Inverse folding.
């Protein structure tokens, strides 16, 4: 019994010491946790003080922002003015381009009527083509009033900005690159291309030197053939003379 009584106060003392150690560790951890936000706040305050601009720097920053904003507004104003001018000058661009199909159909109708064997040299054909010609001239005059002009093509130098080459034809009487035929008319609206003219362009004929070389080759081959034939004839004569001697 005495031994148990003596051991129990020792156990209690150890338990109390352990408890006090745990309490101390908890207190230390709580103190550390309490200090962490304080440290972070101090760091942010230091950083904000470092990043804080002086009044002169703030004024410069505001001036830069104002200059950029003004430049953007000026660019936007110019863009809107250009769009407004384009809409005023070229507002009917799409309609004009579609209207060119009517002129094409009118020209094709006239050509098909003129090529009809049954209608050739008839009074009806003559009157019809005259009416079609009047309609064509009226349409061209309406286009001109709206600043739409035909592109000149025949006997003109090829211009890739206004002409599109569909074919090349050899012509000794014209320089290379001269338009000799117009397949489809082209038009411009002021300084803007509605559609290019489809044209046929002249080119240099084949060189005579090449033809002469071909002729020479043919002559040489004929001469070679003749020489071979003459040699064969000579051989035959020799063979014949030998047989006669025998």
């Amino acid at each position: 019994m005495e031994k148990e009584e003596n051991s129990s106060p020792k156990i209690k003392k150890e338990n109390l010491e352990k408890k006090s150690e745990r309490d101390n560790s908890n207190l230390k951890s709580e103190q550390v946790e309490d200090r962490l936000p304080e440290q972070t706040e101090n760091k942010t305050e230091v950083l904000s003080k470092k990043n804080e601009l002086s009044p002169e720097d703030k004024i410069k920053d505001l001036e830069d922002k104002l200059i950029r904003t003004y430049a953007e507004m000026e660019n936007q104003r110019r863009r809107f003015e250009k769009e407004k001018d384009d809409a005023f000058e070229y507002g009917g661009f799409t309609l004009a381009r579609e209207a060119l199909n009517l002129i094409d159909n009118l020209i094709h109708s006239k050509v098909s009527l003129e090529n009809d064997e049954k209608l050739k040299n008839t009074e009806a054909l003559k009157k019809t083509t005259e009416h079609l010609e009047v309609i064509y001239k009226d349409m061209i005059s309406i286009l001109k009033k709206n600043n739409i002009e035909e592109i000149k093509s025949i006997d003109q130098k090829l211009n890739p900005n206004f002409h599109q080459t569909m074919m090349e034809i050899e012509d000794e009487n014209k320089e290379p690159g001269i338009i000799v035929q117009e397949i489809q008319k082209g038009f411009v609206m002021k300084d803007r291309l509605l559609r290019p003219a489809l044209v046929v362009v002249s080119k240099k004929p084949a060189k005579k030197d090449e033809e002469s070389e071909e002729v020479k080759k043919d002559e040489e081959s004929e001469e070679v053939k003749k020489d071979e034939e003459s040699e064969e004839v000579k051989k035959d004569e020799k063979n014949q003379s030998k047989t006669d001697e025998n």
